[in-house]
Amino acid sequence: MKMIKNMVNFKVNMITSEELLKYAKQFNFEVSKDEAEKIATYLRGKNLDIFDDRIRSQIIREVAKISGPKTAKELNKLFIQFTK
């Protein structure tokens, strides 16, 4: 299980705006190209653990500042899908 967590966290920490747009389309939520770039820039290289509820909440709060609460809520749903 630890290996899977590491793989998911690695993917989140290395995500590109194009990948984020692809996941948004796949999971039916809207994010603009500009927002995706800002979110990906925030996530990239930070070594974040989305399996930790406290850290995930921090990420969602930052994303809400970047692109609004609706997008942050949808991204949280995406993270929850990844962590199940």
UniProtKB/TrEMBL annotation:
Pfam short name (any one): DUF2624
GO process terms (BP): methylation
Gene Ontology molecular function terms on file: methyltransferase activity
Highest taxon, organism lineage: Bacteria
InterPro entries assigned: DUF2624
Sorted UniProt keywords: Methyltransferase, Transferase
Protein name, UniProt field: tRNA methyltransferase
Native species: Lederbergia ruris
Lineage, top ranks: Bacteria, Bacillati, Bacillota, Bacilli, Bacillales
